[in-house]
Hints:
The structure is a single chain. The protein is α/β, with parallel strands linked by helices. The protein has a domain at 86-294: Uracil-DNA Glycosylase, subunit E. The chain has helices at 7-18, 29-39, 86-89, 95-112, 145-150, 156-168, 194-211, 221-228, 234-237, 263-268, 272-288; strands spanning 128-130, 136-140, 177-180, 215-219, 242-244, 255-260. It has a 6-stranded mixed sheet, with helices on both faces. Helix 4 (95-112) runs antiparallel to helix 7 (194-211). The radius of gyration is 22 Å and the shape is globular.
Amino acid sequence: MNDRLTVAQVLSRFDREVGLEETVRATGGSSATAAAVDAASGPVVRGAPARASVAPASSAEPSPQRIHAPAPAPARPVPEGRPIPAASLRAPGSPGERAARLAEIEARHAETCPHCTTATGHTRLVFGEGAPDADILFVGESPGEAEDRAGRPFVGPAGEKLEEMIRAMGLRREDVYIANVLKSRPPEDRSPMPDEVAGCGPFLVEQILAVQPRVIVTLGGPATKFVCATETGITRIRGTWQRWLPPAGAECPEIAVMPTYHPAYVLHTYTMQVRGEVWSDLRGVLAKLGRTPPVRAEGQGG
Length: 302
């Protein structure tokens, strides 16, 4: 009798032993890389639950037997989103009026944010900075160690890379607006949790309504998932135009969104491919605004 097991049978037996419901494995190098980057993009903060896909089984081998997995642990409760104040729903007006509105939002955030007023471990709040009437608004996920010390978004190595990206576009840091989904540094610099985003995220919505940029550039997975209300991973959505929908009653149009990689990821994965993809995304933003990159930036890879 032939007791040799097929590959599918071996994997099925392994999955049963470790309590998995079904075998899901990458079948190619590019797919495995995309999955790794998407997994690093943090927890989902909006939208429907993610769905796993399973490649069809080979006709020569039986598909693994489906095993019921143990029930997952209860998720952390996520509070309902805070209503946007009526004043923030109105059209912002002049640059001076926008700056005053942003200052009011910052002061109110420091006093009332459900997340930041109860979070511990951070040193300073990092609200955001830049031109109150900027055409471009860059959104990251949360402050890191350097930002926590300085009280400013995107400083340190990631901030230097972002400034390099902005200069390549023919702009200065003070020409754009920069903010994060969370305004306080998470413990161990982990990705934001859904309940944290639910508490702090509405203040980012108010910042967007105050600035009303022509384009939002989301940096990394968590920021993209919140702004675009999507489940799609950053490796699949970057470089494609999305849109930000204002809350009901807001005197604000839809805003075009360009997702791209976080500057920290660019530094960590400093390849010609990644740099070229980021630069392609930024060129798309310039084209949307009717601008052309400066001559010195032509052919630049990020």
